[in-house]
Amino acid sequence: MRFQVSLHGHSLRTWLQGLFVCICLLTPTSFAQVTSPPDGFRALLNGQDLAGWHGRPHLDPRKYDEASDEQKAAWREDMLSHWTTQDGVLVNDGKGVYLTTDKQYGDIELLIEYRTVPIADSGIYLRGTPQVQIWDHTNPKEKKNGAEKGSGGLWNNSAGAKGKDPLVLADKPFGQWNKFRIVQVGARTSVWLNDQLVVDHAIMENFWDRKSPLFAHGPIQLQTHGGEIQWRNLFVRELSSSEANHWLSEHSGDSFTSLFNGQDLDGWQGALANYEVVDGAIQCKSGHGGVLHTAEEYANFVARMEIQIPPGCNNGLAIRYPGEGDTAYVGMCELQVLDDAHEKYSKLDTRQYHGSAYGMIAAHRGYLRPAGEWNYQEVTVTGTNIKVELNGTVILDGDLSQVTEFMAGRPHPGKDRMQGSFGFAGHNDPVRFRSVAIKRLP
């Protein structure tokens, strides 16, 4: 690292800061406090070499598999030139490709410690996507980019988006170790820096494709450019579907009213004979259908629930249902509930897959859990707009009043309906719903 020596001004302070930090980084005792993983976590580094990692530049993860073997080998050589392990600590000289896990991750809790030098810039890519920011918050050249707010923000989120800037400045002085705790469920990302919450359940945007959600899975990457950085105590814990669902429910806010008591169908109307309560969940009886709907009507609302879809099964959510008729057409819409990975559904119209406003707007696919697992879903209805968030990822967000093309050319006269019941549109399959709750919106 070079510093311009001056008798006064910022340059001298920077030089002295850099000298002190470089001495700390070169001191053998600086590598102390490498620990074992906490219960439930596993170490991402073995403390001896870079097994389990490979080199990758700033690259759309969808394009990595397209790279030639020669290109991947060159990235590996570059990695070995700039990344080393010393006494259990990972050291990068401020140059080279990014260190990338071989394993792909979805919902995780990540613990990681780092320390760096003045003027340096780095970050942590999640699912191959930039990034949880790390930088020098005292660097005047980066003030225009928000550096003075500190590290930990989702810097590549759009301007003004939640999470782009950290909630508080939590960076420690140079020479000291900083520690991150990151929880990511779907695109929902929370970050603690030095035990202070800096990002609170914000959606991490897909830097590579702004029109699409964050990838469901991807590698963890350690970014580097601009100065030496050291890393230690890298531990990860993959979250189960039940843990992820609990996390999302706990962070969905309050003021929800339960629609299901877990014992019977009190408060529900419609196809009562075609549904039953099984293991604390509402289940459509096999070979039966019809709409089971609330006695009350709702205009604007948020509904949340857990959904279990057996292999190849189908159901739907009735939105602003008038109480009779086919909710897909006479209600505002039917939101499809479907095991859309099943081979028998491989040739459907895109507007028929899970989360879609049936026949009108297609949802993004690839965010359902494997058939038989419980999914967490929230539906927000405001005016003519409807948003579906599945397992922490927004898979649909659209205005039905703007839809002019319909599947099979069949119009949906109820799409502009402004009030109605909420319910389940059974299609002969034993799909289950539990933890069903709703919150009215203004």
Order of helices and strands: HEEHEEEEEEEEEEEHEEEEEEEHEEEEEE
CATH topology of the largest domain: Jelly Rolls
CATH superfamily of the largest domain: Exo-inulinase, domain 1
List low-confidence stretches: 1-31
Shape: elongated
Mean pLDDT: 93
| Biggest sheet character | 8 strands, antiparallel
What is the helix content?
A: 10-25%
Radius of gyration: 25 Å
Number of helices: 4
Terminal Cα span: 56 Å
CATH architecture of the largest domain: Sandwich
Total individual domains: 2
Q: In the CATH hierarchy, what is the class of the largest domain?
A: Mainly Beta
Number of distinct beta strands: 26
Derived from helix and strand composition plus strand pairing, the structural class reads: mainly beta
Query: Which strand-content bin applies to the residues?
Result: 35-45%
List the helices and strands and how they pair.
Layout: H1 10-26, E1 42-43, E2 53-56, H2 69-82, E3 83-86, E4 89-92, E5 98-101, E6 108-116, E7 121-126, E8 129-135, E9 178-185, E10 188-193, E11 196-203, E12 221-225, E13 229-238, H3 241-250, E14 257-258, E15 268-270, E16 275-278, E17 281-284, E18 289-294, E19 301-308, E20 314-321, H4 327-330, E21 333-338, E22 374-382, E23 385-390, E24 393-399, E25 421-427, E26 432-440
Antiparallel strand pairs: 1-13, 2-5, 3-4, 4-13, 5-12, 6-9, 6-13, 7-8, 7-12, 9-10, 10-11, 14-26, 15-18, 16-17, 17-26, 18-25, 19-22, 19-26, 20-21, 20-25, 22-23, 23-24
